[in-house]
TrEMBL record:
Organism per entry: Verticiella sediminum
Gene3D superfamilies in the record: Hotdog Thioesterase
One Gene Ontology molecular-function label: (3S)-3-hydroxyacyl-CoA dehydrogenase (NAD+) activity
Listed SUPFAM superfamilies: Thioesterase/thiol ester dehydrase-isomerase (SSF54637)
Peroxisomal multifunctional enzyme type 2-like N-terminal domain: residues covered: 19-145
Full protein name: 3-alpha,7-alpha, 12-alpha-trihydroxy-5-beta-cholest-24-enoyl-CoA hydratase
Coiled-coil zones: none
Length: 289
């Protein structure tokens, strides 16, 4: 059935507050692959509290609004919803522990057509609770596969980045753990699709799949490892489209193109030779900033 764009446009989200600890930050870092080489000087600060640094993509799991699209007023077909795209802007480094508040709004809705579905773009802001200093702005784009054909949408939808056609400048291979989804789900997303073989089978998958946002964090690790000298503070933004399914235990092959401050990227399952991340763009800051 078509979704109701007016209901989405008028929806008001309650503010979400959250306290998180250094343990939460350590868990997130481990769940997206930091610490794979425990003694590496570039990785240890993300998984050891002595001089702890926080992975910037952790903002994606903080002050989360929950499964808000399941509200029947929106007319969304729940079992036909997938995470389509993720964009994050990093305004300042997250501390290892903190007190946060999060706000959200529906930024835009696109009607792709009656047989092509719709896209709902949700914008979230994560800030320090007392000062209001902004840590991150997130645009989470949800593809509603069965809900197009309602006419016109609203708002300005983000444009997709086009990656270069030349051969990649750098290719990095990132093995993932067989239990990666079991670890990542402890952050926020306990969807049984990522843990229950029976549930995954009913959804059409041979086994549980990895969370898209886990793969997003792993890609961020690959970027900072390969081109930013493990300096996550240089990562100003990170955009990507989720274009395929990735299974825990597979190897993410990340192709990178660097053009001044812009890093384009595409991610593939090395074992199945399937593109799982596309239209990737990371914008970086200079080291002197």
């Amino acid at each position: 059935m078509p979704l109701d764009p007016q209901a989405l446009a008028s929806w008001r989200f309650p503010e979400v507050t959250q306290d998180y600890s250094d343990r939460d930050s350590l868990l997130y870092a481990l769940s997206v692959g930091f610490g794979a080489v425990p003694t590496h000087p570039g990785e240890i600060d993300f998984v050891y509290e002595k001089q702890q640094r926080t992975v910037p993509t952790m903002a994606a799991v903080l002050c989360h609004p929950g499964v808000w699209l399941h509200n029947p007023a929106f007319g969304v077909t729940r079992n036909k919803v997938v995470h389509g795209e993720q964009r994050m802007r990093f305004h300042r480094p997250l501390p290892p522990a903190g007190r946060l508040r999060g706000t959200a709004r529906v930024l835009a809705v696109e009607d792709k057509g009656i047989d092509k579905g719709a896209v709902v773009h949700l914008e979230r802001s994560i800030a320090e609770r007392d000062s209001g200093e902004l840590y991150a702005t997130i645009v989470h784009s949800t593809f509603c596969r069965a809900d197009g054909g309602f006419g016109s949408g609203f708002g300005e939808a983000p444009a997709l980045h086009v990656v270069p056609e030349r051969p990649a400048d750098v290719v990095v291979r990132l093995p993932t753990r067989a239990d990666a989804a079991l670890l990542y789900r402890l952050n926020v997303d306990r969807n049984p699709l990522h843990v229950d073989p029976t549930f995954a089978s009913k959804a059409g998958f041979p086994r549980p799949i990895l969370h898209g946002l886990c793969l997003y964090g792993i890609a961020a690790r690959g970027l900072v490892q390969a081109l930013l000298g493990w300096d996550c503070a240089r990562l100003a933004s990170l955009d990507v489209r989720f274009s395929g399914v990735f299974y825990p235990g597979e190897t993410l092959e990340l192709s990178l193109w660097q053009d001044k401050e812009n890093i384009s990227f595409v991610g593939r399952s090395a074992e199945r030779e399937v593109v799982v991340l596309n239209n990737g763009l990371a914008v970086t800051r200079r080291q002197t900033e």
